[in-house]
Amino acid sequence: MGHIVINNLNKEFVERRQIQRNKSGAAHFDQTIPVLDDINLEFQPGEMVCVLGPSGCGKSTLMRIIAGFDRPSSGQVLQDGKELTSPSPDNIFVYQHNGLLPWMTVWQNIELGVRHTEDLTQKEETIQEYIDMVELEGFENHYPHQLSGGMQRRAELARALVVNPEMLIMDEPFSGLDFLTHMKMREEVVNMHLFLGKTILMVTHNIDDALIMGDRVVILGDRPARVKLDRKLDFPHPRDPKTAPELQELREEIFFMLGVSYAV
Amino acid sequence: MKFKNPALVYAAFAFLISLLVWELTARFSGWSAQVFPGPGPVLISLIELTANGTLIKHSVASLFRVTAGFYLAMVLGIPLGMLLGRNTPLRLLGNPLIHFLRPISPLAWIPLSMLWFGIGDLPAVFLIFLSSFFPLLVATTIAVRSINPIYFQVATNFNFSRFETFSKIMVPATIPSIVTALRLSITIAWLVVVAAEMIAVQSGLGYLILDSRNALRMDYVMVGMVVIGVIGLLLDYIMQQLMKIESTAWGTLGSK
Ligand SMILES: Nc1ncnc2c1ncn2[C@@H]1O[C@H](COP(=O)(O)OP(=O)(O)OP(=O)(O)O)[C@@H](O)[C@H]1O
Ligand SMILES: [Mg+2]
Asked: Is A24 part of any domain?
């Protein structure tokens, strides 16, 4: 049920560098770049985890490893006690952009998640239900390029949810959205999370997103990234950091951690 | 005045102008009608050759060879391109050979193909195959290689079978580039057929041109050229229509 344990996880990338050839030396050497350094984390089933950190610190790398697209250099990720080694429909990854297949309509894209359902009427009902949920009624037969950025994001969310995965992994799902769409999507994801109770991992650059949405906030430090903060947020929704002093305090602490000396 | 299809009006205008230039050159260049026939005599010959069935016979012969060679190139080139695009060791193995063979003009194969396949349709079909096979193969390989890797991740994430990855990702993702490659290579094939028919066969538009030259009938030569041009236009038009099919259209509509 989406219980995740990350044990002593390290990741380094090997980069091949050309150097000047001298009489005796090799023509190139392999340089390893450590990206994730001894990450230990535990997420409870149904938790909404928000991951923050400076750009290039390894957030996407960590998400890709948890989704099974990439392998750690050492350490492991356990899902419900079993080691996670390959992608599966249990953990659906929602991309920053362009995750929808452009040659398929909204309907066909969402259908991918339930394409093995035998009962055709039930399948259609499920697809329609999720399309209604993300408020894309009337756009079933549109292609992704005919939708706005926010609508594409919602369609992708519907495609992820229709699979009924144990965990959703979202890499900056709100980036590039306008302010209002961002607010609406945030509300939708919070409601959906309260309603469905899935484990959700979400990378974000927006501290308020993390404080308003997260059951847990994880902050990664500069590369090679270590866990700088792993804090459970036990506040009821809807939240507002401006009126809850504890949240306001944490907000300033996080700003400070990310290298901004005061919260604006 | 408003026209339903302004492109057609422009095209008609361009052809009218060239007809005029042709007529004027024929009339005032000082060349005799045997050397440079004008549009009038060529039109009369065109009607004559159409009426006695010669043109139809030769056109059908040429089209048959092009179709056979082109289909063969499609059936072998596109799947092989998909394979090479997805399989790095195979690609590394195949690419040097492909790029070595590709710049060799199909016409350079004429002596060998006559030796291997004798006289008749086969050597011509082989040359046409060669002319379209490499462009299609290379275009397909590149198309597969440039598929956004995210789509393959989506495929593994949604547990696609190999066949599903092929039919739901690779085919639709590459169709726009493949259709463009088909359009370009059918033109090359049509170019090559004429040359191929100047050797080893007794039919086809290329043979018509060569035979007419030997008989010093330049009006027939020009009829052959006109028909080649018209059929070339038609082939290109057919290929263009392929691009408008819905499943290929996503590539031209600009994905965000
Ligand atoms: N395939 C790769 N090969 C080599 N280095 C890589 C590779 N993928 C990522 N890196 C490096 O790992 C580091 C972390 O990358 P990652 O994409 O995880 O950062 P991020 O935290 O998601 O950044 P952002 O917030 O900008 O999206 C970067 O410095 C990047 O250069
Ligand atoms: Mg990232």
From this structure: no
Q: pLDDT by residue (tens digit) across A8-58?
A: 889 998 877 666 555 555 566 677 888 999 999 999 999 999 999 988 889
**Subunit contact B173:A86, Cβ cutoff 8 A:** no
DSSP-H helix ranges across chain A: 59-67, 106-111, 120-133, 149-162, 179-196, 207-213, 245-257
DSSP B32-80: -TTTS--HHHHHHHHHHHHHTTHHHHHHHHHHHHHHHHHHHHHHHHHHH
- Which residue, judged by its Cα, is nearest atom 8 of ligand 1? A61
- Give, in order, the Cα–Cα distances in Å from A127 to each of A107, A121, B54, B159, B200: 7, 10, 61, 18, 62
Q: Name which of A58, A55, A49, A59 is nearest A259 in CA terms.
A: A55
- B60 lies in some domain: yes
Q: Which residues pair with A50 in a beta bridge?
A: A202, A217
Instruction: Provide the domain limits for residue A137.
Output: 98-164
pLDDT of residue A251: 87
| Domains contained in chain B, number | 1
Over the stretch A221-234, which tens digit does the pLDDT of each residue have? 888 888 888 988 88
> Is residue A22, in this structure, part of any structural domain at all?
no
Phi, psi of A140 (to 5 degrees): -55, -40
In a domain, B196, yes or no: yes
Q: Closest CB to A99: pick one of B150, B156, B255.
A: B150
Provide the β-strand partners of residue A28: A18
**pLDDT on residue A20:** 58
Q: Whole-model pTM? A: 0.82
Q: For residue B135, which of B66, B59, B74 has the smallest C-alpha distance?
A: B74
Q: Which amino acid is residue B252, in one-letter code?
A: T
- A144 min Cα distance to partner chain B (Å): 8
d(CA A206, CA A111): 32
Ligand 1 atom closest to Cα of residue A58: 18
Handedness of CA B112, B116, B119, B125 (dihedral sign): negative
**B64-89 tens-digit pLDDT:** 999 999 999 999 999 999 999 999 99
CATH number assigned to the domain comprising residue B104 = 1.10.3720.10
Final residue in a domain of this structure, among A164, A187, A212: A164
Strands A227-232 and A216-220: antiparallel
Strand, helix or coil at B181? helix
pLDDT at res. B255: 39
Share of chain A above pLDDT 90, in %: 35
Q: Which domain holds residue B229?
A: 45-250
